[in-house]
Structures are given as structure tokens and as C-alpha cells.
Design a protein that fits this description.
With 162 residues, the chain is an alpha+beta fold. Helix content is 56%, strand content 17%.
Length: 162
């Protein structure tokens, strides 16, 4: 082979290797950009999840206050129901409920007669029947309301079952 041919082959080989490196670098760069985009999306999801549950402790501390408002309003005598003071207390209770709702806290809906579900109910009392061979129990009294945030139960419904 002539020196010129060897030199030309060497240049072609070097050019091919250079192009291969450029292609490799370009692919690595594309992968890095895609990884960065995925990272950004994951971070947005994590931040949304964090925001959803960040105030959970404070919101859970508000629930007993709401329970006390409910208990107080249940014991208002009939002749006092239209009293301005009672109306004000009712309004404050509704404001608390709105704050909870605006923060994604929702009451767990339970009715008397519903089947006991340990995932959402906490049985604090059980009335035994004459033949207590049942495998399922029914809610006969709701003792305390339960609440959830984003599908996560922050307080189970306290019930009496039979």
C-alpha cells in the first residue's frame, strides 16, 4: 500500500471514531436531558404529596374543637335554637368545617346499619346479641365522626356495633 492510501485510511478511521464519539456524547446528553425531565416531574409529584399532608397535624388538632362544637349544638334546648348566640356558634362551626374541607379533610360517611369495616371504623363498644355467632357486625351508634385526607384516614369513625 502506498503511503497516501495508508494516510487516507488513517484519516477515515480517525473521522469515523470522532463521529462515533460525537454520536455517543449526543446520546448521553439526550439521556441526561430525559433523566432531568423525569427528575423534575418526580419532584413536582413529591411536592404535591408533601403539601397535601404537610398540615395534617394541625388539621387533626382542629378535629376535637369541631367535635366540641357538635356536642354543644346537640345539647341546645329547643326554645334556644333561634337564639343569636346559638346562631353564632353554628356559624363558627361551619367556618371550621369549611377550613377543613378547603384543606382536603373530608368526613367519612357512615350511617346506622352500615356493616362494620375495620379500615374506617373503630369499635369502642359491642352490644352482644343472644346468638353472637355472626361474622359481620352492624353499626348501631356513631360515637365520633371520622375524617380522611386524600384517601388517608386521619381519624377512624368511632362506633358501637352489634
Amino acid at each position: 500500500m502506498s503511503e497516501d492510501k495508508k494516510e487516507e485510511d488513517k484519516k477515515i478511521k480517525e473521522e469515523t471514531e470522532k463521529n462515533d464519539k460525537v454520536e455517543e456524547y449526543l446520546n448521553n446528553w439526550k439521556r441526561a436531558v430525559a433523566d432531568l425531565e423525569n427528575y423534575k416531574k418526580d419532584q413536582v409529584k413529591l411536592i404535591e404529596e408533601f403539601r397535601k399532608f404537610a398540615n395534617l397535624d394541625v388539621l387533626a388538632q382542629i378535629l376535637p374543637v369541631l367535635d366540641n362544637f357538635n356536642a354543644a349544638l346537640e345539647h341546645v334546648p329547643e326554645n334556644q335554637k333561634n337564639n343569636a348566640w346559638v346562631t353564632g356558634i353554628t356559624y363558627i362551626k361551619k367556618q371550621l368545617e369549611a377550613v377543613l374541607k378547603n384543606n382536603g379533610v373530608f368526613e367519612i360517611e357512615v350511617k346506622i346499619g352500615d356493616e362494620f369495616n375495620p379500615e374506617i371504623h373503630e369499635a369502642i363498644d359491642m352490644k352482644e346479641t343472644k346468638t353472637d355467632t355472626k361474622k359481620t357486625y352492624k353499626v348501631i351508634k356513631i360515637v365520633q365522626k371520622g375524617y380522611e385526607v386524600g384517601g388517608k384516614i386521619i381519624r377512624a369513625v368511632k362506633v358501637t356495633v352489634e
